[in-house]
Specification:
By secondary structure, the chain is of the alpha+beta class. The chain folds into four domains: about 160 residues, BirA Bifunctional Protein, domain 2 (2-Layer Sandwich); about 100 residues, no CATH class; about 150 residues; about 110 residues, no CATH class. About 50% of the residues lie in helices and about 10% in strands. It contains 20 helices and eight strands. The strands form two sheets. The protein has a five-stranded antiparallel beta sheet, with helices on both faces. It has a three-stranded antiparallel beta sheet with strand order 6-7-8. Helix 14 packs antiparallel against helix 15. The radius of gyration is 30 Å and the shape is elongated. The N and C termini lie far apart (about 70 Å).
Length: about 575
């Protein structure tokens, strides 16, 4: 059940006229009162005459009119109460009882107070009612509305339990402001897929991802085509900022501006400045500086780098301290960076994942001094590397980082659940589902290739690697035949061994890291961890024509490594010219 409260400065008539009218899209049907302050308020009924609406509005406004010029500027209180999709339809008597509970809980009309504010509850749809009230009590005093929104939400949670309705997660006041119904109607009317508020919210987050300075942040906003207005102090210092979408104007043809703090609490300029103080490093090494594969594309390199950084963040989220709150902010920036640079096949899911995880980054837990420099640097690297291809090293490196971010989202859900942050925990789990969907799109081809390579390994070699895998995972039973679910993992161990690594040591290191138990497919997680630890190319290489994975025996492979150190085979990037010899 969702109560939404607004206040206004007008008389009651425009609101009552709208509630008993046909609606903006003829959606209002069977308009009628279900309850009122005294039980005798005149009901205009469906399709009323104008004078009938005016009669009800005038009765509501009488205490306000009695104050004359001393009446408050804010006079109207409007609360819509809606059941969740899938809930049963409540009858008029149930809605009347719910309306009385809401006005009692919020202080509009406490039970037994005969001098309270006047109010009416109007029903014009099966799934919701509107409560309209004036904010002057019948004894001439002003209504006491301290924390009315919070009280309405708390009462709604109790109503859900008592009426057998879907129970929503309680909020903590840190959520971003959602678009109003008027904003949604305007978006539909102008052909937008979403209200400008949501578009701007996402654009500001993405501009902030990995930004090193305040000036860079504002430059990114302008580069995205947004209008940016800065608010200056008399000294010339910037105090705040507002953004607007080109073409989004009011009835006077003026741009509709949104201040950063109205988009989300953590997008105010002071909060952004505190985040910028946490980094990132602006002197991050060029791709190839820390890798033996100097030909690796910049997007692939930065994604591999981000995967390792995110892995460490997941481990910090498993610790029982509040410093992890900052790690969530940094992980959110990596997601925002990926959402704007990843291949088209995964971009939609990543944008939804970033949108959901954004709620998980905000709570009342503060960790102002936590170090998130590495996370912000990883996000910066992804943004500056540019868009990734959906194939080859780029596409498979995307799968590598997504495999890790799924575990980060699950760790965030567990961290929030332990602190009673129900909305943030739910948002983290929702983000994990979107990340899994994106991973399935990005990882399908490389995992299929690795499984095929694993099946072509000589039987003795495959059995040896699978025995190592079962031992590392603590499986004591010996299967009668090969374990197909480990084909890809056996293939990557064979590839690592050929490159000069100890398969058993690699596997022990990969399984020792945290979050493995939360993975749906343990084998997939280990495959990408080992490829990153061993610095293997993200996209697996099939055996060259005329050879098979089994043409060299383990003994020959070991003898070759002893005689000559293994070198990583260059991976050709289709966007790069062939290296000079």
């Amino acid at each position: 059940m969702i109560p939404k409260i607004r206040t206004g400065t007008d008389r009651s008539f425009p609101l009552i006229d709208y509630l008993f009218g046909p609606g903006k899209h003829e959606e209002h049907t069977d308009q009628h009162l279900v309850a009122s302050w005294n039980g005798f308020a005149p009901d205009p009924g469906p399709n009323p005459e104008r004078h009938q609406v005016a009669k009800l509005a005038n009765q509501l406004d009488q205490p306000v009119k009695a104050l004359g010029k001393q009446a408050p500027a804010t006079r109207i209180w409007h609360c819509s109460v809606r059941t969740a999709p899938g809930d049963r339809h409540l009858d008029d008597a149930e809605w009347a009882a719910i309306a009385r509970r809401i006005v009692h809980a919020t202080g509009i009309a406490p039970e037994g107070d005969t001098a309270a504010c006047r109010w009416v509850a109007v029903r014009h749809a099966p799934d919701h009612i509107h409560i309209a009230a004036t904010l002057v009590r019948q004894d001439g005093r002003l209504a006491g509305l301290s924390y009315d929104k919070r009280k309405a939400q708390a009462e709604a949670r109790l109503i859900e339990k008592e009426y057998g309705l879907r129970q929503l997660n309680p909020g903590d006041g840190t959520a971003a402001k959602t678009p109003t119904s008027q904003e949604h109607f305007k978006a539909e009317r102008t052909g937008r897929t979403e209200p400008p508020r949501e578009t701007l919210h996402q654009a500001v987050r993405q501009a902030l991802a990995g930004a090193a300075t305040e000036q860079e942040f504002f430059t990114r906003l302008r580069d995205e085509g947004l209008r940016v207005k800065l608010r200056h102090a008399p000294s010339g210092d910037v105090l705040g900022y507002s953004v607007a979408l080109p073409g989004d104007r009011n009835r006077d043809s003026e741009p509709i501006w949104f201040a950063g703090n109205t988009l989300a609490p953590d997008l105010s300029l002071p909060r952004i400045r505190r985040r910028l103080e946490a980094g990132p490093a602006t002197d991050t090494p060029e791709p190839g500086a820390t890798s033996t594969r100097a030909d690796r594309s910049a997007p692939a390199y930065r994604r591999r780098e981000a995967a390792g950084t995110a892995e460490r963040a997941a481990a910090l989220l498993d610790q029982d301290d509040d410093q992890a709150a900052a790690q969530l902010v940094g992980a959110g920036e990596i997601l925002d960076a990926l959402a704007q640079t990843s291949p088209a096949a995964t971009r939609a899911e990543l944008r939804e994942a970033a949108r959901a995880f954004e709620r998980a980054t905000r709570s009342h837990v503060r960790a102002e001094n936590a170090d998130i420099r590495a996370l912000r640097s990883a996000a910066r690297g992804i943004v500056h590397a540019g868009s990734a291809l959906g194939r080859g090293e780029d596409g498979d490196a995307t799968a590598m980082v997504l495999s890790t971010l799924v575990l980060v989202a699950l760790a965030a859900a567990r961290w929030h659940s332990a602190r009673g942050h129900a909305q943030q925990a739910a948002a983290s789990r929702q983000a994990a589902e979107h990340l899994r969907a994106a991973y399935q799109q990005a990882g399908a081809t490389p995992m299929r290739t690795m499984r095929e390579i694993g099946r072509t390994l000589p039987e003795p070699e495959r059995r040896r690697h699978q025995a190592t895998i079962r031992a590392a995972l603590g499986e004591t039973d010996t299967p009668a035949g090969p374990v197909r679910e480990y084909d890809a993992l056996a293939a990557v161990l064979a590839e690592a061994e050929q490159a000069g690594h100890d398969p058993q040591a690699l596997l022990e290191q990969a399984t020792s890291w945290r979050e493995l138990e939360t993975a749906r497919d343990t084998s997939d997680v280990l495959v990408w961890r080992i490829r990153r630890i061993a610095d293997l190319p993200a996209n697996p290489q099939r055996p060259r024509t005329g050879t098979t994975a089994g043409t060299r025996t383990v003994t020959e492979s070991a003898r070759t490594r002893t005689a000559q150190p293994a070198l990583a085979r260059p991976v050709t990037d289709p966007r790069r010219p062939a290296p000079r010899r």
